[in-house]
Amino acid sequence: MQDKLSETIGTPVRLDAPLSDYTTFRIGGPARYLCVARSGEQLAKCLEAARESDVAFQVLGGGSNVLFDDGGFDGLVVVVGTGRVEVEGTTIWAEAGAPLSDVVDLACRAGLSGLAHAAGIPGTVGGALCGNAGAYGKAIGDRLVEAVVLSRDGTERRRVGPEELALGYRTSALKTTEDIVESISIELEEGDQATIWQEVGEVLERRRERLPEPSAACAGSFFKNLPPPRPGEHRTAAGKLLDECGCKGLRVGDAQVFERHANIIVNVGRATAREVLRLAAEMRRRVEERFDVTLEPEVKVLVR
What we know:
The protein is α+β, with helices and mostly antiparallel strands. It contains nine helices and 19 strands. It has helices spanning about 1-10, 40-50, 100-110, 125-130, 160-165, 175, 195-210, 240-245, 275-290, and strands at about 15-20, 30-35, 55-60, 65-70, 75-80, 85-90, 90-95, 110-115, 135, 140, 145-150, 155-160, 180-185, 190, 220, 250, 255, 265, 300. The longest helix is centred in the C-terminal third of the chain and has 19 residues, at about 275-290. The chain is globular.
């Protein structure tokens, strides 16, 4: 099967590749098959090959918002390895595998404002759009012009706009249609370069004060913030509720709640997915017991 997949896709397919090497949590057993797609055409071929071979598959970007099973994934994991980013006027076009940090950097160098809030957010453009990633009340979808997506079986490529993607807080229609992002275009505004760099620096400093180092083994915020209590008001931060429940520093095995942010779980050694989930369950239990609200995971949990 490995040789057949490699021949169909046109690029090597690895066997039993450890998923801990491809996620920021550094957790996950072996993928039965793993392929890095270096172009939109290869990405489509990966999807077609999985369908024709009747193999389960999972598309992975930067691996920054996912928790894989300790037993691995019994199918094909497709890592989106595309990464081109281009600017024309006030529009930035980026392939799905481009790190979001590269897009922010290009915007700064081009003197384009409107993306400072995304500074320091890990992961790729495709993953960011799928989860409508953002911070400080803003999201990547706010700037979207259009995206090029592939159908789950790789047979159809189409252009979609923000309305069709039904972008919301940490979600999009992509989570239900399971279309795969190939590229996106976003629209920014001309601005003063020095001011833009200053805004980005301020955002990065705020993140440094509260969040783990970029090299830390974690998946960012584990739970979604709660809906606003009333229309027009801000969301209630899940981290605030977790903090009030004494979750900072809680630990199960090598999974530990970060000491400066109660909504972040860090792999401080050789944490397993089961340890992360046991810790998350205790965090959720405490919030339910005290506030009578149920926290929803922001991290995509791929644990059987």
